[in-house]
Amino acid sequence: QVRLQESGPGLVKPSQTLSLTCTVSGGSITTTYYAWSWIRQSPGKGLEWMGVIHGTGSSYYNPSLKSRTSISRDASKNQFSLQLTSVTPEDTAVYYCARVPSSGGCDYWGQGTQVTVSS
Questions:
Q1: CA–CA separation, 4 vs 6, rounded Å?
Q2: β pairing state of 113-117 and 11-12
Q3: How far apart are CA 66 and CA 57, in angstroms?
């Protein structure tokens, strides 16, 4: 059973960096068949894909967020992380981590974590 769990601060001040970690159990994040993604949903909006890190370690980002987004991993802890710099209240959202099989889509999701950007 694969499980993903997001963790990190629920409140971030404007202009600061949002940092979240996804801890994966039941499967290795270095398996090349899978990639690992961050997705968010702002109030009243649909899901927004932020980026992905592949089992090889390569990462790719949503062009609209690329300049502010970084996804990294710690294979020894089976974790991958998101950093979003220069946040504004527009970045307030529920943030999800998810597993992406090579066939596409997301087959396992974390429960999501609410992050509010406010002073």
A1: 7
A2: parallel
A3: 17
**What phi-psi label fits residue 114: left (phi over 0), alpha (psi between -120 and 50 degrees) or beta?**
beta
**81 exposed, middle or buried (CB, 10 Å; 0-12, 13-18, 19+)?**
buried
User: pLDDT, tens digit, for every residue of 21-74?
Assistant: 999 999 999 999 999 999 999 988 899 999 999 999 999 999 999 999 999 999
Residues β-bridged to residue 113: 95
Give the chain's length: 119
- Residue 96 confidence (pLDDT): 98
Question: Do 22 and 79 contact (CB within 8 A), yes or no?
Answer: yes
Positions of E strands within 1-119: 3-7, 11-12, 18-25, 34-41, 47-54, 59-61, 69-74, 79-84, 93-101, 108-109, 113-117
**Hey, is 20 helix, strand or coil?**
strand
Task: Decide if 31 contacts 54 (C-beta within 8 A).
Answer: no
Are 117 and 12 in contact by the 8 Å Cβ rule? The answer is: yes
